[in-house]
Amino acid sequence: MEKTEINFGFVVGTTSLAFVVSQLDVSIVNVALPQIGKSLTADVSTLQWIIDSYTIAFAVLMLSAGGMSDLFGSKRLFQAGLLVFGVASIGCGLAWSSLALIGFRAVQGMGSAIMIPSSLSILNHTFSEEPKQRARAVALWTAAGGVSIAAGPVLGGLLMQLSSWRMIFLVNIPICLIGILCSTKLMESTKNGKSGFDIPGQLIWMFAITALIASIIEWHHLGLKSPLIYGGIIVSAILFVLFIWREKMAKSPILPLDLFNSTNFNVLIGVGVLFNCTYYGTVFILSLYLQNVLGYSSLTAGMAFLPLTAGFIISNLTSGKLMQTYGIRVPILVGLLVFSIGCGLLLVAKPITPYWQLLFPFLALPLGMGLAVPAMTTGTLATVDRSRSGIASAVLNTTRQTAGAIGVAVFGAMATGGPAAIVQAIITSSISSAVCVLLYTCFVFKYLKNN
């Protein structure tokens, strides 16, 4: 029993390192945006690209990475992803211009795309014969990512106080090295020799996502009447249709459409999309709000996000216990309701708002998301055969990262124009997010079944 517990902790701890660095770099950059903007002379649109170049690369390559994990084995892909991410982090820390930083951020996204599906696949294979252990492992894995995404602004503020914004990238290097060394003791997963590569599908998917998000980011500067904007949206729509057609025809599609024959799979993917779109976009504009409207320093702004860390720790661990008792449905429904309340509470954000009023939404948002995400992840993996866990994980994380990039693009576009625009963006986004989450909660209640 003692040996099992040691192995359990080692496997979960090692695979969680990948999720920690990937999620850390989603949020740690947010608190550094004003300092990066001054250092590299970057406007809000450029800052959006610094955030979204990472998430776009993450999203567009993860489908292929999921198939590669099933084809070559998750352990190899896990190690390769950590290596790419670590090297790219060095480049980000030494970036000499905003364009260079955007480029290295994209390479970081590639590393994340490689290592995240493989890390989740390792967990699914290792504990495939023990559903309760698998649920517990996924809950802890998700908790590590949730805590890191919430702790990112806090750690970023501390690092910038001690050094500069460059340190927020260089801190990834020792984590990646530890992950590579520890992963040598992990078991290799079962390989699926039927997997393959769909290069045309990958290229179509990449251009479709990039065209859509680029159009959203740049519409404020160029205007909706610009042919580059409406042309980009039209091209993106055409490419999405072409992508679906290609995946139906391909012998080895990067997105097997039969996955969507499962109602549970579809509902759970929707939960992930909704959470990432609203949460990523909200954290982006809240970082601007705390520093550009309320006048907080980078350290103070980082510490202001501390309740998010506490909320994720509590809710992620609670989610695992709820799953063991009630299955996946209850924690997801409760999580959605609490998250919608947190979105609504952001209406307190004004040009002058005392911090204690922000505590309530800063706690409710991670509490809701942390309750639902582990159950959502566990439920998604349970809908597929374990030989396809890599691609199932890739689909889940691809849609979530795409939604996160769109959330940053949309919310950031609303916040362009100074302090007044930032406050108005928070009000608009909080109302729309709360309504959307509540409506989807009703949908989940009707269609989601316990696994």
UniProtKB/TrEMBL annotation:
It is found in: Cell membrane. Keywords: Cell membrane, Membrane, Transmembrane, Transmembrane helix, Transport. It is a multi-pass membrane protein. Residues 11-451 form the Major facilitator superfamily (MFS) profile domain. One of its GO terms (molecular function) is transmembrane transporter activity. NCBIfam families: efflux_EmrB. This is MFS transporter.
